[in-house]
Write a structure and sequence with these properties.
Elements: E1 2-11, E2 19-29, E3 34-39, H1 45-52, E4 60-65, E5 68-69, H2 75-81, E6 85-89, H3 100-105, H4 115-128, H5 144-156, E7 162-166, H6 174-191, E8 194-199, H7 202-208, E9 211-216, E10 219-225, H8 226-231, H9 236-243, H10 251-256, E11 269-275, H11 281-291, E12 295-306, E13 309-319, H12 322-334, E14 338-344
Parallel strand pairs: 3-8, 3-9, 6-7, 7-8
Antiparallel strand pairs: 1-2, 1-4, 4-5, 9-10, 11-13, 11-14, 12-13
Bound molecules: adenosine-5'-diphosphate and magnesium ion.
Magnesium ion binds at residues 45-46, 167.
Length: 348
Amino acid sequence: MISLEHISKTFGANRPDAVHAVRDVSLRVRPGEIYGIIGYSGAGKSTLVRCVNLLERPTAGKVFLDGVELTALKESELRLARKKIGMIFQQFNLLAGRTVAQNIAMSLQYSGIPRAQIREKVKRLLEYVELSDKANAWPSQLSGGQKQRVAIARALANDPKVLLCDEATSALDPQTTQSILGLLQRLNRELGITIVVITHEMAVIKKICHRVAVMENGEVVEENDVISLFADPKRQITRDFLRTTSNLSGIYPLVEADAPITRLRPGDLLVLMRYGKAEVSQPLISRMTKQFDLEINILFGDLEIISGTPMGGTVAIFHGAPEAIAGALAFLDSEHISVEVIRDAREA
Ligand SMILES: Nc1ncnc2c1ncn2[C@@H]1O[C@H](COP(=O)(O)OP(=O)(O)O)[C@@H](O)[C@H]1O
Ligand SMILES: [Mg+2]
């Protein structure tokens, strides 16, 4: 649905203080999927997503939407093509001087659509986002969640194929965030709209995305389907993001505080293992204990539901001869279990 080919964006290209906001990013978003882009502030997420609808012209690279190269279109053609793309923002961007209904109708005016038809459409959109009673309210009379619902209704007015969401829930409290994410999921399932979600919160990715790209310094440094990313993160930055949502991350402050349960005997290893399936954890651990003459002391285990799939994780201390520990690690590797060493007393 969206294809970005070697997109770069440099601000102030000829100046000494040039900013390389996006560096050679290529990615594809499939029809009907919810695609997440996660990164810290300044990573280039907003710039990249603005390149999709050419609110920002890339310095280099091509943008395709539904098979059409947007970067090759004339301004008039582009205006038309843009109607296939809706966008919502962290700050909602509603016009304060217009009512809710007028905000939603905005992009339909001057389109040649008869007024009665516009009114009918606005009514249906308001029903869809469950705000029928707010048609004549002013934006200032709405809560943050209601404002975002209006912004979503407005974005849907042109029946877009794609919805771009730039930190759409970042200004909302956790409960409102859940309800907006639920609404996005509904648009995706019921209307088949392809959604791109920009966020700095792993919880958002975990809740609704099918695939995800991790951005750092203008580059996509890791991309995967969400379950595989959780099961086997490749980059440190990805692990850092995962820590923010997993109960297993409770181990890090304990290690930092040198809590007694995290103290190791010489030769021990403290590890965090992640499994793509929840049910493998028990057999795996009993098998390693027997096969490698290893003592495994489980500190905590966890079950997470990611995109509807249960996944397991265990934090444990391995105690045994160096060969036994090495054997167990090789075994885990052969089983494609992701292992993060948290504390290592093997050489101590
Ligand atoms: N219009 C602009 N002019 C100059 N620099 C910009 C502009 N927009 C963004 N940047 C810079 O580009 C980098 C990426 O910004 P942005 O895309 O907003 O990142 P993110 O959305 O991940 O926080 C930042 O260093 C930012 O300061
Ligand atoms: Mg941003």
